[in-house]
Amino acid sequence: MSSSAIPPNTGALYGGIAGRRVTVRDIAAAKERHEKWPVLTAYDAMTARVFDEAGIPVLLVGDSAAMVVYGHDSTVPVTVDDLLPLTAAVVRGSSRALVVADLPFGSYQSSPEQALGSAVRFMKEAGAHAVKLEGGRRVLPQVEALVSAGVPVMGHLGLTPQSVNVLGGYRVQGRGESGEELMKDAKDLERAGAFAVVLECVPAELAERVTTSLSIPTIGIGAGPGTDAQVLVWQDFMGLTPRPARFVKRYGDLAGDLDRAARAFAADVATGAFPAPEHTYT
After folding, report:
1. Res. 11 pLDDT band, cuts 50 70 90
2. Is 107 marked as a binding-site residue?
3. Binding of 3-methyl-2-oxobutanoate: at which residues (predicted)?
């Protein structure tokens, strides 16, 4: 898409806040205005700077780094120590976005005390502005402990990738009676103090019902158009992922661009066309 075809940033949250970081209060206000807004993942300073300057209000340092950064086949293996330097880089590379860090598998499930210890590391050592964790009623004590300690918490329901082994794979969640359980979980997370909830791979009708029933924003990924915000993994939407999920819309062909550039570089080196005089010091 050419730059002339890209619509200007609209809304107070997306592109409208200058001179300071987006806060959880800004996100709550966007919900009250019925304003939709984008979220992207980021794992390094340079990408974070690009997205920040584009006006993306929330950057998520996802445990998806396990796959797109570290090469694992699920999010389960990634650790706090793996994600801390990535989070710190995103914070340094941005000046406006709210940076949310994922609490990885095994870093919060055992107790509220463990969750607080992990969250404190992300806030103090990496400079994160909020954390995200997966689950509903089973993690309510953790959410309450974090919020009471001053840590903003984003919830995550539906397809929770850290539980992929229990769920039996990457499948749509919330159909039938389980949809009502998801609704209860969402309301419980709101009461526990979560400032937003991610809804992943749930039927669009359910996601819309959850969104209208909550006073906090919902962030959809594979959850249809009825949520308050939408999030994508940046490697998916830029065409780096070989087999993206159905819910992904590709906005670029970075894999193709990199392939063409690498082949052109290799050919120039082989023929002696690079480095040319303009690339050489005298």
Report:
1. confident
2. no
3. 63-64, 102, 132
Q: Among 200, 205, 208, 278, which one carries the catalytic annotation?
A: 200
pTM for the model: 0.93
> 189-209 burial, b if ≥16 CB within 10 A, otherwise e?
bbebbbbbbbbbbbbeebbbb
User: What type of residue is 280?
Assistant: T
Our answer to whether residue 200 is catalytic in this structure is yes
Q: Is 26 annotated as a binding residue?
A: no
Helix (H, G, I), strand (E, B) or coil at 218: strand
Q: State the Cα–Cα distance between residues 274 and 11, nearest whole angstrom.
A: 46
Half-sphere exposure of 108 (CA within 13 A, CB side): 30
**Residue 14: what pLDDT?**
81
Asked if 162 contacts 192 with a C-beta cutoff of 8 angstroms, the reply is no
Spell out the domain ranges in the chain.
Answer: 24-251, 252-281
Consult the annotation and say whether 132 binds a ligand.
yes
Q: Interhelix angle for 112-125 vs 140-148, to 10°?
A: 50
**Angstrom distance (rounded) from CA 179 to CA 136:** 13
Per-residue CA distances from 225 to 132, 201, 222, 265 (Å): 22, 12, 9, 42
Q: Is 64 annotated as a binding residue?
A: yes
Question: How many CB atoms are located within 10 Å of the residue 174 CB?
Answer: 25
The class of domain 24-251 in CATH terms is alpha beta
The pLDDT of residue 263 is 98
